[in-house]
Amino acid sequence: MTVEAAFHERPGISEARSQYYGRLAEKSARPLWEVLSSLVTPVPRDRTSAAIWRYREMRPLISEGARLITPEEAERRVLILENPGLPGSAQITQTLYAGLQMIAPGEVAPSHRHVASALRYVMEGEGAYTAVNGERTTMRPGDFILTPSWQWHDHGNPGGSEVVWLDGLDIPIANFFCTSFAQHHPQTTQPVAHRPGDALHQFGMGLLPLEYKLDGMSAPVFVYPFERSQCALQHLQASGHHNPWHGIKLQYSNPATGGSPMPTISAFLQLLPAGFKGKSYRSTDATVFCASSGRGRTWVGDTELAWETNDVFVVPSWQPVRHEAEEESILFSFSDRVAQKALGIWREEYLEADQEPVQANV
Amino acid sequence: MTVEAAFHERPGISEARSQYYGRLAEKSARPLWEVLSSLVTPVPRDRTSAAIWRYREMRPLISEGARLITPEEAERRVLILENPGLPGSAQITQTLYAGLQMIAPGEVAPSHRHVASALRYVMEGEGAYTAVNGERTTMRPGDFILTPSWQWHDHGNPGGSEVVWLDGLDIPIANFFCTSFAQHHPQTTQPVAHRPGDALHQFGMGLLPLEYKLDGMSAPVFVYPFERSQCALQHLQASGHHNPWHGIKLQYSNPATGGSPMPTISAFLQLLPAGFKGKSYRSTDATVFCASSGRGRTWVGDTELAWETNDVFVVPSWQPVRHEAEEESILFSFSDRVAQKALGIWREEYLEADQEPVQANV
Amino acid sequence: MTVEAAFHERPGISEARSQYYGRLAEKSARPLWEVLSSLVTPVPRDRTSAAIWRYREMRPLISEGARLITPEEAERRVLILENPGLPGSAQITQTLYAGLQMIAPGEVAPSHRHVASALRYVMEGEGAYTAVNGERTTMRPGDFILTPSWQWHDHGNPGGSEVVWLDGLDIPIANFFCTSFAQHHPQTTQPVAHRPGDALHQFGMGLLPLEYKLDGMSAPVFVYPFERSQCALQHLQASGHHNPWHGIKLQYSNPATGGSPMPTISAFLQLLPAGFKGKSYRSTDATVFCASSGRGRTWVGDTELAWETNDVFVVPSWQPVRHEAEEESILFSFSDRVAQKALGIWREEYLEADQEPVQANV
Amino acid sequence: MTVEAAFHERPGISEARSQYYGRLAEKSARPLWEVLSSLVTPVPRDRTSAAIWRYREMRPLISEGARLITPEEAERRVLILENPGLPGSAQITQTLYAGLQMIAPGEVAPSHRHVASALRYVMEGEGAYTAVNGERTTMRPGDFILTPSWQWHDHGNPGGSEVVWLDGLDIPIANFFCTSFAQHHPQTTQPVAHRPGDALHQFGMGLLPLEYKLDGMSAPVFVYPFERSQCALQHLQASGHHNPWHGIKLQYSNPATGGSPMPTISAFLQLLPAGFKGKSYRSTDATVFCASSGRGRTWVGDTELAWETNDVFVVPSWQPVRHEAEEESILFSFSDRVAQKALGIWREEYLEADQEPVQANV
User: Fold this and answer.
1) pLDDT by residue (tens digit) across D122-178?
2) How much is the ipTM here?
3) Which domains does chain C have, with CATH numbers?
4) Beta carbons of B179 and A362 less than 8 Å apart
5) What global pTM score does this model have?
6) 3-state class of A268 per DSSP?
7) Distance from CA of A172 to the nearest CA of D (A)
8) Phi, psi (5° rounding) for residue C277?
9) Buried b (16+ CB within 10 A) or exposed e, B26-48
10) How many angstroms away from the CA of C78 is the closest CA of chain B?
11) Residue D194, Cβ density class (10 Å: 0-12 exposed, 13-18 middle, ≥19 buried)
């Protein structure tokens, strides 16, 4: 990103001004003009940087964690992916948290609920489940699973293989707004109240229950099976749908509203055909990507991120991004786009357009 | 507020674990279980504290500032009210900025626009104007004025008296989400394109322009004259409207939607009758109050804030609040409530209710 | 309007077909192709015609009615304005009912409620009231008053002069959809529960009650005083606002939503400057006009309707309309536009535009 | 239904009144009090009656029609199902039209569009298609297909068997509101622009296209395959979902909004287990049912309608309804419920509830 001139030139300092500023400080006040240029910037100033976590490096560390701590002791055995630009923050972007969670055969992660909304994108293994509000869904690679705000959830693995997934949460948002609440369920594992598939069959087949009223702001269906998502992408690819910036890109949708599955996190799935060389775009929603399959590279400004299956990488706000795929690849991604839109502050720009950059929402 | 136990007990540390954590750090990863209790808290953890800025102390500092710097040099001659719990942050709450701005006779504050939304609540003086999108509105004490996101605005004072107002902005929100943009208008003072009162007569008289479609997410009317707001409060007082927690309290409304005038900031006006002793409540939206008139005190937990006309005070998130008025008083207030609601994370609790605390939005 | 060819040419009849049609009829069936051209028409086929009711002719009939029947006996002493194209139907358009109601000093019209939504536009006299849900509003010429669906309402005249107003209801809609319900209040006059002006001060001053949730689909404020509406029009006229088709035209608005005050009826107020010669437009919502003041003429296709104060006239669907004013005039109007929009079937066309007709919602 | 007393007692007639009424009629006016009781009724007055069309009787008539007229000549070869209470009206309810359409091998029904919205529920045969906006969908029994307002559509049958379906349209609504428009496509068969399944894969798999904005008010997916709908019902039956009034009942949903697939017509699918004996309910939306499979009977007040596969029957407004199934049955149904809700006039009552009747929307 080119250097942008400051919005406001800081006035010179004098002895009189300096003394005055000191007296202001005693009253918990300070002159705006001394800090205006850092508060109101001409373009977004993101303290995070582009970064990648390679699965082949992280996977052994995940297994090592499994030997060092149990899920019960850890509550959730997760390796937080922390943005190098924000060390010690537990943030992968300024507003989002991401981590790699593993649950081994026979383990359970105890039931709790919190204001923070969470998503899971399954990377490896089969046979574990996520339980939400009394229904368990079996986790399979590529499945997109929600555990929405303030809903009881737990995980367990009655199967035979280690199951690893990417966690995405809005913890920084909940804490920035000072709205965190959390509780443990009285039981380690919440009781099963529904048959597997009940939510999907009630809400995910093109119909809704009679006179259904959505309760809350999250999708009533909490699993988006990869089988269906992949089928959609492949059909559209075969039909020649193609976006020069994004390949074939879809957004996960709440069937009861058509909006985002959760009020703070948007999630997307895109297919990049083999040989895809995308055009450049930028948007204000810093975005976390997970290469669900395939191999390619993403340019963030001048930074090259070469990725392969299950690598996770992050793109800061307003940095130009373009994707290339060496082989057919599927990228899962999530960001705070829906939150930014709800607050009227989201902006996007398509670069390398035939004519001028196309700006949305200005 | 009672001390709340941590959500999760941090596991013990061993040599093996310690080494493991070090290797994680090299990969920009860290164990969630080491920080879970500070990330996911059982109740909101607000780093700000209750505080008050007394007008009789701030007013001389405002005048002193006027002798030391011009609005042109300062861009905006504002004393930021900085929360004592967040020194150096330019934040009055975790999500909001507040300041005291003054414009002296003959001065102009140059025209600019930014993504951050702003409100003005006029405290003293008459004869200045705020211009928004080509229309100037004369500022009078008690007027609530908007300069919404990305709309050109400037101020000027062709009158004879110093005019002081409270600024409220969502700068921390714009920066947290990495969405800041700002521009200067090519002219110091934007051209006048409309007659004063045009917006109010188009949008504020119970009618809207034929086939009106709202552009953006902010109210098309940008001044809420105190004359009307006060009339509403006084009528309802005379009619016996009375809320044991809030006195007579109304929220400013976008006539084109019925929602908040701006997508990130809610604003309220309330009348406390002389002798009012309110019950206690708490909500997750930390709130900035300005005593528009009268004299009283507000209890925030165990902290007493005694206020009189034009004092500004702030209440952190989830702290129990109750108001008392020695004489009939009018309190203006603003918070990020509308933003929290849009994100599905706002919560409120009425304490001292006849039965149980009443919790909203849980 | 030019004659439009039928959408479908009716097939010829044969002996075999004729016998077949007879056998269908025995089974409550009939061939679509025999009636298709009358069912699915290329342009709207409105059975009503343009018509005018002159106040100087109707006023004596109103007074005569007052001598022949009491409001108690009549329930409502109203002269229905019945479209000449639909004799016996009690419809002024295919979807709306209109009538002239009078209440003399000392009279009361008993309290009832019904699913049909009603509006009142006051034409003459002062001192009567309309009571809605426990609040009475004094009726003054030019006031626009709602008695929304299923809300108790009654009228009374404690004053000294006869008060006349125009009633507009959606009775044909309620009956077409088979949704009519109606009840009498246990008391002739519902108890007074609120001070006059309470609704206006709660909902009509730019603010709303704290955490207000709209109950139902109608405006919580039920009077739009002429003083304010007229002030808006006159201000905008002075500012040079001017629409070549409509003069200065505003739509009444629900302050809690920005939408229509009632879910089935839209209402408008427009000022035609002296000498105004409007361009032609047409829309699918047949519209009832009341000349609140002034004198002019309206062309509906080739039909000229010359109107003066308190005349009521009606324009059918999709007929080209243009207004002319000899002196400054104010026209009140209402239609089912909001209902058509809610059903996705409203269409409008601006004729005499500089280039092509501009069609909305096609 | 019990007889309901009139809302208002008609006043007596006198010579003076009679003469007066005559003079009113000359001015296209009439006294409300003479007709009030028929205009404003205490309960809905539906002029239609419960009725059934048996497929075994209608099917031969459909085939006979195929020998007597071609689709090109007929435009659409449909037998209208006309309510016995409204002979000559082409209405099955006061607001809806229904018909049985057949297309034989090799036939095409020419491309046109109209404001009226249409649904198709496939009864018999396979191999025909419906084309909407350039995409063809193969019609299979139980499929629910939309041809929304003002969208080009045509049908063709390249297969080998006669295909029969139920048509449902809102023609009476379009004509009541005077909003009918219709056009023929320049070509008999609109060009194919999309691959079969494109809409379903874009909108029906739990995701939506990136930054999708709904155009219009109808679902962007225009086929709801029976395979999926049936799967949903059977899963929920196996899970023990069961409503004492409706069995297992779902409503078709627009994936982009969660609302009705079209703005004027709601559609439902319900499974009645073998031996089901439903409780009684009534609602203001008169409803058309089609027995997609199974055998049973429906009571409408005291009228028994015994149905089997592909029979069509209609229930008037506000009549108590209860269903019984001799064998496991699937009922498709549609009504104007979504339109009534949009207008704020829909009402429903669950009878035989444990306590009082439960009324919605009063």
Assistant:
1) 999 999 999 999 999 999 999 999 999 999 999 999 999 999 999 999 999 999 999
2) 0.96
3) 1-43 (no CATH), 51-360 (2.60.120.10)
4) no
5) 0.96
6) strand
7) 25
8) -130, 100
9) eebbbbbbbbbbebbbbbbebeb
10) 28
11) middle
